[in-house]
Amino acid sequence: METRWSGVRNFKSGLCLWLILWLVVVKPGGVSACPKLCVCYPTPMTVSCQSQNLTIVPAGVPYNSQRVFLQNNRITELRTDSFGFETQVLWLYGNNITWIEGGAFSNLRVLEELDLGDNPLQRLEGGAFRGLEKLQSLHMHRCKLAVLPHDLFHKLYSLQFLYLQENQLHFLQDDLFSDLVNLTHLFLHGNRIRALSENVFRGLVNLDRLLIHDNRVRQVHRKAFRDLGRLTILYLFNNSLSELPGQAMKDTHGIQFLRLNGNPWSCGCEARALWEWFREARISSSELMCTSPSQRRGQDLRFLRELDFAFCPLPDPGSLAGSTTTTLSTKTRWWFSKNKPASSSKSSYQKSAEMGKPFPFPAIKPQFLPKIPSETFSKYELSEHEAALPKVDQEEYWANYGNEDSSIRCIELECPLGYDNPAFSSISPLPRMPSLLHLLLLLSILTFSFHFLFG
Q1: Whether the Cβ atoms of residue 220 and residue 199 lie closer than 8 Å to each other
Q2: Angle at Cα 140 formed by Cα 134 and Cα 143, nearest 5°?
Q3: Cα separation of 119 and 266, whole Å?
Q4: Which residues touch 211 (CB under 8 Å, ≥6 apart)?
Q5: Which of 371, 346, 359, 361 is nearest to 426 (CA)?
Q6: Element (H, E) at 443
Q7: I need a labelling partner for 368 at 20 to 30 A (CA). Which of 143, 188, 250, 293 fits?
């Protein structure tokens, strides 16, 4: 009996020995099938091939890899057959990738993080990220990108972090991010973006941080932020903004941190809507130093007094912008003028001239007529003809965008002498004077004219 139990013990001992040998020798055999010049680790399955002067994605990467590191090599292109494995994390930054074929990552169905930063992506095809429906983080910083294909981010429903900073982007197409419903962080700083259109951020209903500083932004559409109700951080500093529509900021209900410094703010009547928004908002904000008009230069827009806007016209109740004027950049006004129907230009001018006459009697000499803001005329012309204008051709509009001068503002008495507006060709500019003296002069003129006409 003792001999029998001894045999059983020997058998168990031998079995345990074989199990140990299998774990030590056989199991690491899977790890030993590591690509040449790479190092592999079993838990989690990691393949590290960084800084090995590789020119293509190496063959032999284990199919069940979870992390693949290929950064700082010399890989030049990514094609549909480049990846014969699956992984959750793929680092390709610091290579020489110039071309990514459409569907290049379609085999990486479980990919969650993709880093393509610091690559000269000259040719980025539409659909390059097709199939990456589980992707959560995408890095494309410093890739010399000048334009993004309109369908580049289609169906990336899981994406939460998108890094596009320090590229050469001049503009962003409408609905470029419309499928990114779960995006929380969007980094666009350090580009050359000039305008934010009405639908540029449409669909970003969960966006928490938007960084657009260090660009060339001059215009923000009043509805540009309408889907950004959950935004808490907005950086627009170091741009070329002279005004920001009050309605745009009203749409950012959850904003907590706002940086708008480093912009040439105009603090005339066009700033009233933004000033009123700051009075109601309870946020952490940077300073907003005025550069015009001259008497407010160096003041902080946020701390202006209500008296500073006392002589501004009342806001238009029908305007979503909550602004008193409609102003267009010279580039936009050039386009409208170029495409305006010729048959209606004369009637438009006559109507504008009639709307601009504050005195219906001829007894007063023209040089004493007050100067009327050009936006008054622009407003009537635009509302009269905008429906009849042809659709803007995007290529034509953007061809020379950036060569135009800054948007011309003519508020109250701030119009420069010889202001270039055809509506004023027969009116001599009124010399600049304090507003109180101006009112007294007008009152005297009215009194004199009343006695002259009615004895």
Answers
A1: no
A2: 155
A3: 39
A4: 165, 186, 187, 188, 189, 233, 235
A5: 371
A6: helix 435-454
A7: 293
Is residue 327 a contact partner of residue 270, using CB atoms and an 8 Å limit? yes
Strand pairing category for 195-196 and 161-163: unpaired
Please report, in tens digits, the pLDDT of each residue of the chain (455 residues total).
Answer: 455 545 545 544 554 445 444 443 344 434 458 999 999 999 899 999 999 999 999 999 999 999 999 999 999 999 999 999 999 999 999 999 999 999 999 999 999 999 999 999 988 988 999 999 999 999 999 999 999 999 999 999 999 999 999 999 999 999 999 999 999 999 999 999 999 999 999 999 999 999 999 999 999 999 999 999 999 999 999 999 999 998 899 999 899 999 999 999 999 999 999 999 999 888 889 999 999 999 999 999 999 999 999 888 876 554 444 333 333 333 333 433 444 444 333 333 333 333 333 333 333 333 333 333 444 333 333 333 333 333 434 444 344 433 333 333 333 334 444 434 433 333 333 344 455 666 777 777 777 766 666 65
Structure tokens at 24: 């030590």
Rg of the chain in Å (alpha carbons):
32
Residue 218 φ then ψ, to 5°: -115, -25
* 35's tokens: 């690509």
Token pair in block for residue 93: 């930054």
| Separation CA 200–CA 27 (nearest Å) | 53
Which residues lie across from 175 on neighbouring strands? none
Give the CB-side neighbour count of residue 324, counting CA atoms within 13 A. Answer: 21
Of 163, 205, 199, nearest to 180 (Cα)? 205
Q: Which two tokens stand for residue 300?
A: 């902080």
